[in-house]
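Budget justification aside, the reviewers requested a transparent look at the raw inputs and outputs of the sequence design task funded under Objective 1. We therefore reproduce one unedited record. The lines immediately below are the structure tokens for a 262-residue chain.
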């Protein structure tokens, strides 16, 4: 797997937040406690609170910047992401201070289209392409919820065990959704993800740490992500700026005839 493919895997394998307008996110000290947590709160009650904290949106867009560690070599990148809820995810990745587009990606529930401008190649595949790129088998809806930081693991069902980890709620998956299992930590202050680990039956995993929460139109959003994958091995840190919500976005995508089809 080449560096551009890895870079794209990191950028779209997890993103961020969502809501209703386009104002600056407030700093961490403004993060509210949702409500006092009863000492006898059950795992299902905690999960229900996390479901109620999900963000709702029609459109999401943001700029991003970050760095990725590939084999001990750290590379900087930037770009933009645009999401039409439930329909499309569009990402452009830039390098050289944001002046050069490296690649463009468009994802739908059925397809993945990738134009690698640097290597002059094009990939047109079904959504199963993600299993090859990130090592776990996600659906479009699961991917979108991970990108915006929403809980997505179904209604309370009594199938999780919960313990405390540094004062927060640590959940260990006692079941499988298809070939995947999910362990995660929810904040004891606002019931949002602090950490999410996805594993398949071959013990390949993706771990995401959500950090630097802020309030945006009465919703909470993580402003930083730390991503680690075991196969292939890499890690990345992402930061997000200039967020817009519910503003319709263009998602231009074309593949020149000169691009080599893979």
């Amino acid at each position: 797997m080449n560096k551009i493919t890895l870079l794209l895997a990191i950028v779209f394998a997890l993103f961020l937040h969502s809501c209703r307008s386009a104002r600056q996110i407030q700093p961490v000290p403004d993060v509210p406690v949702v409500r006092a947590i009863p000492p006898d709160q059950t795992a299902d009650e905690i999960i229900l609170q996390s479901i109620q904290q999900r963000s709702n949106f029609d459109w999401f867009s943001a700029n991003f910047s970050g760095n990725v560690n590939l084999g001990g070599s750290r590379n900087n990148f930037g770009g933009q992401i645009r999401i039409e809820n439930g329909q499309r995810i569009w990402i452009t990745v830039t390098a050289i201070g944001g002046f050069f587009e490296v690649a463009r990606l468009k994802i739908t529930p059925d397809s993945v289209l990738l134009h690698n401008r640097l290597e002059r190649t094009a990939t047109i595949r079904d959504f199963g392409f993600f299993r090859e790129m990130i090592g776990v088998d996600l659906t479009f809806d699961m991917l979108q919820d991970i990108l915006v930081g929403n809980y997505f693991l179904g209604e309370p069902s009594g199938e999780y065990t919960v313990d405390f980890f540094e004062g927060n709620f640590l959940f260990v998956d006692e079941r499988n959704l298809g070939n995947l299992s999910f362990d995660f930590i929810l904040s004891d202050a606002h019931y949002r993800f602090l950490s999410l680990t996805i594993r398949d039956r071959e013990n390949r995993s993706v771990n995401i740490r959500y950090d630097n929460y802020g309030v945006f139109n009465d919703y909470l959003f993580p402003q930083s992500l730390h991503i680690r994958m075991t196969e292939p091995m890499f890690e990345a840190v992402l930061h997000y700026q200039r967020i817009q919500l519910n503003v319709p976005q263009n998602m231009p995508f074309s593949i020149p005839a000169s691009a080599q089809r893979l």
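The chain has one domain: 3-28+41-250. The chain has four helices and 14 strands. Computational costs for records of this kind are itemized in the attached budget.
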